[in-house]
Amino acid sequence: MTTHQPSSSHGPIHVLVVDDHGLIRDSLSDRLSREPGLEVVGVAEDADEAITKVLELRPDVVLMDIDMPGLSCFDAIQIIRSRVGEMKFILVTAYEHDEHLEQALRVKANGFVTKHEGIALLAEAIRNVAAGRVHFSAEVMNRLVIKGDEIKLENPPKSRLSTLSPRERELLRVLARGMSLKDAAAALRISYKTADKQKASLMAKLDIHDRVELARFAIREGLVRP
Fold first, then answer.
1. What angle do CA 147, 94, 118 make, to 5 degrees?
2. Same domain, 46 and 144
3. Which of 61, 141, 189, 215 could be 176's S-S partner, Cβ–Cβ 3.0 to 4.6 Å?
4. CATH assignment of the domain containing 145
């Protein structure tokens, strides 16, 4: 499905690699740089740094891990697009949770791939996205419905998690990592008062009133790694 023309029709495709694991980040950067037509112009270790690097380097494609501490990749996508206009993003995950896929579709990510795919397939995804197409791993394609220019999950998740607003979901994700409410508010760039209200709201919606149970729930729903 073509959405628009590539941002650079001549020369290599410039890629920014974003991952909080140094070994994965360096390995991806090295191996992708060896692929014909691709050039890794920078790396970032979290979503906040990704915003800075995108503004500085203006890559053609941002390859971003889904599960990173701090600001979520989904919020980062929206912030970046609000500042630089159209930008192409491929989200990378080790887990194929429908919640992640649903959020990727909500922010109109251009690609969604799994970490166990080989470099050749990842390079193909980057080329497809740079050329104005969308690219989803084969593992998730059978869970999607494409109608015209719209892509949706065939069976959207109907768990208690779906009752949360995007902001409440992100607060749950960072709290489940063990952050204090003060640190969570700072990571999400909201006031402590707002975070406190959102915490009360999400606990009421989930009918969970214990931090340990919140963490267990977030792990079961795929928001954080165990």
1. 85
2. yes
3. 215
4. 3.40.50.2300
Find the DSSP H helices in the chain.
22-33, 47-57, 73-84, 98-106, 119-130, 138-141, 166-176, 181-188, 192-206, 211-220
Residues 103 and 27 in one domain: yes
Pair 29, 146: CB distance under 8 Å: no
Q: Report the chain's C-alpha Rg in angstroms.
A: 18
Structural domain boundaries, residue 183: 160-220
* Alpha carbons 200 and 140: distance in angstroms, whole number: 34
Q: How confident is the model at residue 104 (pLDDT cuts 50, 70, 90)?
A: confident
Determine, yes or no, domain membership for 24.
Answer: yes
Q: Residue 196 sits in a domain of what CATH number?
A: 1.10.10.10
Average pLDDT over residues 84-88: 90
Segment 220-226 long-range contacts (CB within 8 Å, at least 24 positions apart)? 221/97, 221/99, 221/159, 221/161, 222/95, 222/97, 222/98, 222/99, 222/100, 223/99, 223/161, 223/169, 223/172, 223/173, 223/176, 224/67, 224/173, 224/176, 224/177, 225/67, 225/94, 225/95
